[in-house]
Amino acid sequence: MSKIRLFVVCLGILVIAVIIGCSEGTTNINPSPTDVVTITDINKFITEKDKLAGIAATMNAMDPVAMPHKKHEDAGIKCVVCHHKAGNDDRIKQCAECHKGAKGEDTIHGLCINCHAQSKKGPVLCNECHIAKE
Questions:
Q1: Which of 45, 51, 60, 118 has the highest count of CB atoms within 10 angstroms of its CB?
Q2: Same domain? 9 vs 75
Q3: How far apart are CA 123 and CA 117, in angstroms?
Q4: Are the beta carbons of 66 and 112 closer than 8 angstroms?
């Protein structure tokens, strides 16, 4: 077998392996492996300037929230519902960059819980989202 053919065969095998390996945890809209994101420290991005502006930190006593993109996509929820910032080509991936501290926590809870309550689908109680990892 010539070196070129061997290279093409190896490249083909690599491409197939990458496609199979990367398809786990992807969605139709976003084919990168970002299906389940973990929403963690809502206080992480609070700066000294934010504190001076009155942004209060939360107690951060609850467990992180695992949010499955695929479930929401399968339910027909458009990305812009949560990733709402118009012209946000970079798609801020961490809500807490803008929605910080106690006020941000209220905003995120309102978005998720209100949507779940209105649609009568999805969790609405604290321990249904904030699930301790074993």
A1: 45
A2: no
A3: 8
A4: no
Whether residues 40 and 26 share a domain: the answer is: no
E strands, 3-122, are 36-39, 65-68
- The residue range of the domain holding 105 is 35-129
What's the burial of 5, exposed, middle or buried (CB within 10 Å: 0-12/13-18/19+)? Answer: exposed
DSSP 57: P
Q: Is there a single domain that holds both residue 39 and residue 98?
A: yes
CB count within 10 Å of CB 101 equals 21
| pLDDT tens digits along 3-54 | 666 555 545 554 444 444 434 444 455 555 567 888 888 888 899 999 999 9
Q: What is the pLDDT of residues 42-86, one digit of tens each?
A: 888 899 999 999 999 988 888 888 888 889 989 998 887 887 766
125 and 65 in a common domain? yes
